[in-house]
C-alpha cells in the first residue's frame, strides 16, 4: 500500500514538473507547452512580415517559390522561422538561438536551402534553379508588401548561403 | 531549535494532509470509466486522419524533421518499416475496441496511449506544435495508469458474472484513490491557465482591448495562405542584424467563419470576448476546488471550445469529451441519493 502510494506520488510529480516548467520558463517541446497561441498583441500598428524565396533559373527567368512549389507542408515556414532562421532573443518561446552568430546563421540556412532546393528541383524539372534570394518583407494593413529587405543569397552550386543584409545596410 | 521545529511539524503535517486529501482520498471509479469509453471512442474515429498524416509525413524530407524530445528519446523511430507500420496500424484499430470496451483494460489502454502519442507526435514533428493533442496524449497516459480505469469495462462485467458473492459484486464500484481523476483535471486547468497567462505575458493587458482577437476574426492572419511573422515596435537595434527588422514570433492562423467576421466589425464585442477569454482561462483553475462552480466551469469549457470551433474552425473536440465526461459525472453525483465522494479540499 505504501509502495503504491509512493509510486503514485512519484508519477504525479513526474507529470506535473515538465508541464509546470513549460509554463514558467517558458518553452515548447511537444507535448509540453506554454500555449502561446494567439498570445502576441497584434493591432493595426503591429509590424508584420513574410518571407519570400525568389529563385533565378538557368534560363534567366525568376519566380517566387514557396512550400507549395516544392510539394511540402504549410508548416515548413514555421519550421524555417523557429529552427532555421531564428527569432530575435526577445522572441521568448520562439527564440532558440539567443546567442546567434552570422556563421551559425549561414550554416543553418545553407542546410535548409540545400534540402528545399533539392525538393523543389524534383518537382519543377527540367527547369533548373541556380540561385535563391531570401527576402524579409514588411506587410501593410491589407497584407500587401510594403518594404522588402534582402536578407541573403543561397548559391545552389556551392550549397552556401551568404548573409548580405548586414553588409548592404552598412 | 526545539521551538522552531515544533512550529514546523504542524505545517508539514497540514501540507501532507492536504496533499493526501487532494490526491488520495476516495472517489467513485465511474467517471474514469466513462472518460475511457468516450475518449478512446472519439480518438478511434481520428485514427484514419492520423494514419493519413503519417503517410504525408513520409513525403517530407528528413531535413525538416524536428521531433519533440519524447518522440526523439523514448518512442519509436520515424519512419517505421512497411511491415512494422502494417502491424502497428492493425494493432491500433484492435486497441481502440479493447481499450474502449475494456478488455485487458489497463494493458490495452497503455498500448493505445503509447501508439496514439506516437501518431500525434509525428504530426507535430514538422515545424508546428499541435496544441490540442498536447493535453490529450498526457490524459491518455494518466488514464491508463489511474485507479478505476477499468470501471464500466468488459473485464469488470466478466468479473461480476463470475462473482460468487455479493461482496465481490459490490466491490466493482468500490471507491478508488482519486489521483487519476484529479491529475486529469489539474492538467486541463494548467493548460487553460498557461494559455491565459501567455496572453498577458506576451500581449500585456492590452490583449484584453480586443484588437488581437479582432485581427484573427477578420481573417487577416490567413491571407493567401501566407505565414506571417510579427515583432513589437521596440525591437532592440542589436537584434536586427539579420534583416533590419527583427522578427520575434510567428503569427497563428485561423479560418474565421462569416459570423466571426461580423463580430470582428464590433470592437466592443471583440473586447468582451477577449476579456471573457482571459477570465475563463485564468479562472478555470477554480474547478479544482469542486463545489457549485465545477459544473459551471466545465460547461463553460464546452461553450468556449464550441465558440472557438464555430468562429475560427479550430477543433478541440477531445478536450470537450474530457469536459463532458466530468460534467456528466457531476450531474450523476448531484442526483445520487448518497454521494460517494468526499469534498476535495
Q: Can you put this structure into words, describing what you see?
A:
The complex is a heterodimer of chains A (170) and B (345). Chain A contains four helices and five strands, in the order H-E-E-H-H-E-E-E-H. The model of chain A has no long low-confidence stretch (mean pLDDT 92). A five-stranded antiparallel beta sheet of chain A has the order 2-1-3-4-5. Chain A has two domains: 1-39, no CATH class; 48-169, no CATH class. Chain A is elongated, with a radius of gyration of 21 Å. In chain A, strand 3 (129-139) and strand 4 form a beta hairpin. Chain A has 170 residues and is an alpha+beta fold. The longest helix of chain A has 23 residues, at 2-24. Chain B is mostly helical. Chain B has three domains: 24-161, no CATH class; 206-219 and 256-345, no CATH class; 222-253, no CATH class. Chain B is built from 15 helices and four strands. Chain B has a two-stranded antiparallel sheet with strand order 1-2. Chain B has a two-stranded antiparallel sheet with strand order 3-4. In chain B, helix 6 (105-123) packs antiparallel against helix 7 and helix 14 packs antiparallel against helix 15 (317-335). The longest helix of chain B has 25 residues, at 179-203. The model of chain B has no long low-confidence stretch (mean pLDDT 90). The chains are: A alpha+beta (170), B mainly alpha (345). Chains A and B meet through helix 1, strand 1, helix 2, helix 3 and strand 3 of A and helix 4, helix 6, helix 7, helix 10 and helix 11 of B. Strand 1 (48-57) of chain A pairs antiparallel with strand 3 of chain B.
